[in-house]
Hints:
Layout: H1 12-33, H2 35-43, H3 65-70, E1 86-90, E2 98-102, H4 104-120, E3 128-132, H5 138-150, E4 154-156, H6 163-172, E5 177-180, H7 182-193, H8 198-201, E6 206-209, H9 216-226, E7 229-234, E8 245-246, E9 254-256, E10 261-266, E11 279-286, E12 297-306, E13 318-325, E14 329-332, E15 335-338, H10 339-350, E16 358-364, E17 367-375, H11 385-403, E18 407-412
Parallel strand pairs: 3-4, 3-5, 5-6, 6-7, 17-18
Antiparallel strand pairs: 1-2, 7-8, 8-9, 9-13, 10-11, 11-12, 12-13, 14-15, 16-17
Helix pairs in contact: 1-2, 4-5, 6-7, 7-9, 10-11
Amino acid sequence: xxxxxxxxxxxxxxxxxLQLERLQSTINRACRNVAFHRGRFSExxxxxxGIHSIQDITKLPFMNRRDLSEHYPYELFAVPLxxxxxxxTAPGTTQNPTVSGYTPQDLHVWxxxxxxxxxxxxxxAHDILQINLNPGLANxxxxxxxxxxxxxxxxxxxxPLSIEKKVMVLRDYKxxxxxxxxxxxxxxxxxxxxxxxxxxxxxxxTLILAGDAISDEDRRMLEQTLRVKVxxxxxxxxxxxxxxxxxCQEQQGLHINEDHFLAEIINPETSEPAAPGDSGELVLxxxxxxxxPLIRFKTGxxxxxxxxxxxxxxxxxxxxxxxxxxDEIINIDGVTVHGRLIVANLENTLGSLPGAVRxxxxxxxxxxxxxxxxxxxxxxxxxxxxxLEKLMHHAEGRxxxxxxxxxxxxxxxxxxx
Length: 417
């Protein structure tokens, strides 16, 4: 058991005191080193020295994804660039991506966080852990690798593999733990259903899902098909990373790592705190992040606090999370994409928008993809079918590159839109 687990069972008063001390330190460092935070606190008439309790956090203004994109690339960093040892980018809400940086201390904290989530799922030094995440979550793959190494499990790092090769590695390398997304797990289950003898050849016992929520029905299907126990982790694909909340053996909600994050649930319409037990938007404040402190960051994820004590004995607050959103962002296999960014990329690629555009998440087999419907119009219509196909293929490629998700573009009659 890692030292990080000592915080999981803290008494409420001790935990709140730790959170307050870390919150005050975060706010002071952010105001001292980041002009964005200093300016918005000053505009709101807030003195960081006036934060005397956890409840005082409601006095502070919110952050959102647009702030991350508008201060691209390094304006939100609270440390000099010479102290940054890892830089990660993800699609933002504008043409600018979001950029997150990590100091050595940040990476150490994330290693502790990942180890805690893995240990809660029963991962030990006796396990061989295989990581299969899509390219948009490559940073998460590195985090899971380091967390698994801390618990001294054997690790098969995240590399792109065909479904056949994934099964081969699972079987031949005797993987006992698989970290993946719900969509990739569903694809694996569909493939294995066509080969009834394969589950008998696997030593897989634990399936850890990250990036998106999963229904109870799909969870049961995965457990029956793959003969595993399924565990959920919650994180943000932009910043700072995975396993910010994790399931324990009771699997009744996800425990938030409260020694590293202060969580709130607010009414998305009024931005006021939600009533106890009510669902709303999850808001997170980092307490130990040095490079990129987030203060009241609106995640856009719908959740609610579970108020009763968990039978596992952990004192960490739990949330119920469905994968639903309170904003215009869509989640495709763990990668979040904003509608404005889709439209902006289309306009840049095609030169102009041919009228109304529809986009949504569609399943292609067991995988998810972004499907875009464009009306047939004079601007993009060509008598040469090959030229039109070439244009659509080019647009799909550009969007895949810029958004980090699979994209399919279909031309539709205007009446169907």
